[in-house]
Amino acid sequence: MKTVIIGSNHAGIAAANTLLDNYPDQEVVLIDRNTNLSYLGCGTALWVGRQIDGYEGLFYTNKEDFIKRGAKIHMLSTVTNIDFDGKVVHFDNESGESVSESYDKLVLATGSKPIVPNIPGKDLDGIHFLKLFQEGQAVDKDISSEAVKTVAVIGAGYIGVEIAEAAKRRGKNVLLFDAMPTSLASYYDPEFTKHMDKNLEENGVELHFGELATEYKADDNGRVNQLVTDKAAYDVDMVINAIGFTANSDLGSEHLETFRNGAYLVDNHQKTSDDSVYAVGDCATIYSNALEATTYIALATNAVRSGIVAGHNIGGTVLDSIGVQGSNGISIFGFNMVSTGLSVAAAAKNNIDVEYTDFEDLQKPAFIKENGSVKIRIVYEKSTRRIVGAQLASTEDIAANIHMFSLAIQEHVTIDKLKLLDIFFLPHFNQPYNYITMAALKAK
């Protein structure tokens, strides 16, 4: 059995590892247009902000490891066409030759691509995107220039907020723009995002929310030197676009069924509408347990799980995807926020009638010196009372709590079951009246 995998980042790597580790009858071929594989793009801001020593640790495997295990790898190779009827992938290899690989099963792991704002000046020098390793290198090189004093970041989602912090840590004047009225609006309700906004401002990031970029202007050398929005014009030396991503599904969109955003529509085995083709990671749909519906959530953790599911099903072991919650987190200037499932705003957008319960308290008893306040919100469906979302924010490390809420959403746990959950107490960690318990008890 020969499986060709197009794309060798998180999802493609997970599928390849699953096949190579468990199914010795599998011939595995990976094709990727990049110079590298397995890049942890979520660590780019840590590297650019010099919070880690270098980018080397952001690669968790390499080409040689796969070759030793019997895989065939084509790097710097661009797929030009897929003959789905003949089961052949045509591509230009590293040497520029037009070659092909036949397949029994094909895995599309082509990921996502940045949304490019179609405004005047979008192709000027000094305007960057941030996804691939090479793009991270370009941003790091540009931001290291003494000539770059002011950096504009377009988009205040996770990547935008993280790279804004990184630029500020590098001593730059940072302007953060977003069309929404707050940062992180896709993940948290305003009661939470206002704390992140305050945190950014207190650390010197200039916020421009509710503002839409309309044009980039250049100096005499063709480099961006001004950002124009629907409200004002700003002198800048560099622009980083972090508006968001959409599915990179160009290769198979004319042959395979797709979702409303263009992502390949897959079943719970990651199989597409073509029985011989699987799609994994950011180019494919995923099932949301909070929504109880198929949707699109581009996260590295989801990509890994989808790759594992596809690998086993291709190998002959029937394995159903159990769905996801979209669990996520961020840490900026020591302020931590985590969420899973739906915010109140996201529930309303999806026509799900919800209630929520909030609570805020110290993480540990007041007599503990190293301490901090924790804010929690639990969102639950009004009719069934099942938990559909949770958000937490604190300077304390509260990240692990979100895993429990992820499982609660997956297993349809109600807010009432959570009220008397056995949560241990020790002053080193928490309070006897735990904020999770107290929030649940406050539910209507």
From TrEMBL:
It is an enzyme of class 1 (oxidoreductase). InterPro entries: FAD-bd_OxRdtase, FAD/NAD-bd_sf, FAD/NAD-binding_dom, FAD/NAD-linked_Rdtase_dimer_sf, NOXase, Pyr_nucl-diS_OxRdtase_dimer. This is NADH oxidase. It catalyses: 2 NADH + O2 + 2 H(+) = 2 NAD(+) + 2 H2O. Its EC number is 1.6.3.4. GO terms for molecular function: oxidoreductase activity. Residues 2-307 form the FAD/NAD(P)-binding domain. Its cofactor is FAD. Pfam families: Pyr_redox_2, Pyr_redox_dim. NCBIfam families: NOXase_Strep (NF046103). Belongs to the class-III pyridine nucleotide-disulfide oxidoreductase family. SUPFAM superfamilies: FAD/NAD(P)-binding domain (SSF51905), FAD/NAD-linked reductases, dimerisation (C-terminal) domain (SSF55424). Keywords: FAD, Flavoprotein, NAD, Oxidation, Oxidoreductase, Redox-active center. PANTHER family: NAD(P)H SULFUR OXIDOREDUCTASE (COA-DEPENDENT), PYRIDINE NUCLEOTIDE-DISULFIDE OXIDOREDUCTASE DOMAIN-CONTAINING. Residues 335-430 form the Pyridine nucleotide-disulphide oxidoreductase dimerisation domain.
